[in-house]
Amino acid sequence: MAEILIVDDDPGVVELLSMYLRKSEFSVRSADSGPACLDAIDKRRPDLILLDIMLPGMDGYEVLQTLKDKHSIPTIFVSARDDEVDPILGLEFGADDYITKPFNPREVVARVKAVLRRSAAAAAEAGTRPLRYPGFELDPDTREVRVKGTEVALTPREFDIVALIAARPRHVFSRPEILQTIWGYDSDYGDYRTVDTHMKRARQKLTQAGMETCVIETVWGTGYRFVVREPQGGSGA
After folding, report:
1. Which structural domain, as residue segments, surrounds residue 199?
2. Which residue, of 1, 16, 27, 136, has the fewest CB within 10 Å?
């Protein structure tokens, strides 16, 4: 039974979502603020977070920023500010999906199931065996990435993208292919900025950690590929 953590300071919203999620056989916990959310996750890691943006203490963006440095948990943003916030912005912050209030609770349940399916599918796509290249290791089971032995904290989607392309070195993954595989969106719904933003952040983190032999290359006009170079005395060429 997957566990969902609802983070919202509106008791009515929490009650409504909890009822529908439990009917769909999910386990449910709740938190009414950003700090309470972080505390709940430290006590027990949920399988997915429904995270309101307007929260007391810390807003949803701050919560997600804090979380992604320590955990890799699928997250769906929930907000009433549909006229102020670009849904793509929520995705670029690392969320897996975005829902605006008022919402149909059945749709929320459907989105939760879809995100959990995509996370499982992305893990399956990457395979279950750890990937080990010179100076770079990725374990799909523990969802850990290490560069020269040091763990690098990636968001769930950053990890999924890196795992996807690292499983097939030198294969060029197009932006539509990445968008469809990781987010489940086709080009009519999604925005390639999402792919580019997540790839840029993942590449920056890996580069800052000292990844040199393995590189993520941009194939202009197409997409990205993972390249493993033979060590050559640090030439970096």
Report:
1. 130-228
2. 1
What are the φ/ψ torsions at residue 214 (nearest 5 degrees)?
Answer: -100, 135
Mind listing the pLDDT tens digit for each residue in 64-98? Answer: 888 876 667 889 988 876 545 556 666 777 788 88
Which pTM value belongs to this model? 0.58
Domain count, the chain: 2
DSSP string covering 25-86: T-EEEEESSHHHHHHHHHHS--SEEEEESS-SSS-HHHHHHHHTTT----EEEEES-TTTS-
Question: Both 186 and 118 in a single domain?
Answer: no
Q: What is the rounded distance in angstroms from the CA atom of residue 99 to the CA atom of residue 86?
A: 11
81, 106, 122 - which closes a domain: 122
Dihedral (C-alpha) 42, 47, 48, 54: value to the nearest 10 degrees?
Answer: -10
Dist. CA 180–CA 55, nearest whole Å: 31
Same domain, 82 and 169: no
Q: What pLDDT is stored for residue 203 in this prediction?
A: 93
Give ∠ CA 91-8-75 in degrees, rounded to 5: 30
Question: Does residue 220 lie within any of the structural domains?
Answer: yes
Model confidence pLDDT, tens digit, residues 101-125: 888 989 999 999 988 887 776 656 5
Residue-level length of the chain = 237
